[in-house]
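[recover] target loaded
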């Protein structure tokens, strides 16, 4: 390895550290309760901000719509927070049709910010109380973006009677095509960890363990029997489009609809929300077939 290459890497790491120090002071890594209330007030949408505990863990989530309506749970990627799906919880097309929930995954937002849970199964278990709170009489529809994709798939595998359908938006599910950038390794060094924002630390912990975690899920894909919509863009440079082929190969026993957009990037909830909305509305319409 040349001196020039080593020097370039060192400069890159120092730049990351500098960005981290600036981010800690000025970059918004999570949205507090007051900001959530302000957003939904402008949308004239009543919102409930709730928390529950599992052992020493606290999970925060928000909800709109009557709790007797069919439940839809949105699960964000990494890094991220429940605010990623604010627009869906205030969506006029979904209002009155569903009890819409968005959750801070463990380690993000106000769910023990900075305390990582790299285990996909453990994250699924920590989100189960959301399923248990369902009062509609119908199993829930789960929507997961990026890293949230394998988590909702795990929830469906663990709790099949409580889940009606999945919407996977650019999900990171294929261990063979899980992208780990070289910067993830120095970002795990103690001195760098102390500098970068806690949300990035959690995301990096998940990234470094993600291949092993996905390899443990191979059998779960064969267990799935529920309808699944898979959405991906060919311009995704975060989660490789090759994940789509993995989905086709592994989801053998469940009805699978593939939605592919040649011009779409990774950030589907913001750039192409219509795909998620349409899939969710379709499953809400057909829920009577899956009554608990």
């Amino acid at each position: 390895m040349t001196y020039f290459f080593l020097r370039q890497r060192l400069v890159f790491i120092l730049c990351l550290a500098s960005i981290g120090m600036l981010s800690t002071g000025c970059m918004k890594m999570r949205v507090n309760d007051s900001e959530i209330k302000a957003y939904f007030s402008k949308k004239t949408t009543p919102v409930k901000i709730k928390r529950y505990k599992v052992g020493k863990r606290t999970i925060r989530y928000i909800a709109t719509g009557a709790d007797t309506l069919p439940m839809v749970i949105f699960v964000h990627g990494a890094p991220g927070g429940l605010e990623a799906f604010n627009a869906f919880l205030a969506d006029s097309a979904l209002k009155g049709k569903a009890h819409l929930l968005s959750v801070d995954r463990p380690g993000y937002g106000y769910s023990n910010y900075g305390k990582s849970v790299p285990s996909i199964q453990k994250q699924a278990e920590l989100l189960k109380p959301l399923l248990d709170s369902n009062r509609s009489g119908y199993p829930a529809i789960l929507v997961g973006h990026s890293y949230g994709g394998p988590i909702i798939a795990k929830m469906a595998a663990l709790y099949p009677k409580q889940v009606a359908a999945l919407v996977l938006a650019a999900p990171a599910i294929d261990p063979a095509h899980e992208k780990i950038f070289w910067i993830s390794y120095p970002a795990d060094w103690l001195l760098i960890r102390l500098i970068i924002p806690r949300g990035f630390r959690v995301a990096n912990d998940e990234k470094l363990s993600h291949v092993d975690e996905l390899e443990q899920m191979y059998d779960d894909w064969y267990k799935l029997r529920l309808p699944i919509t898979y959405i991906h863009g060919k311009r995704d440079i975060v989660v490789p489009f090759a994940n789509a082929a993995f989905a086709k190969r592994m989801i053998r026993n469940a009805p699978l609809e593939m939605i592919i957009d040649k011009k779409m990037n990774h950030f589907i909830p913001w750039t192409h929300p219509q795909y998620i909305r349409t899939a969710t509305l379709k499953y809400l319409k057909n829920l009577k077939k899956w009554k608990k």
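[recover] notes: Strands lie at 48-54, 57-64, 71-75, 99-103, 140-145, 163-169, 228-233, 256-261.
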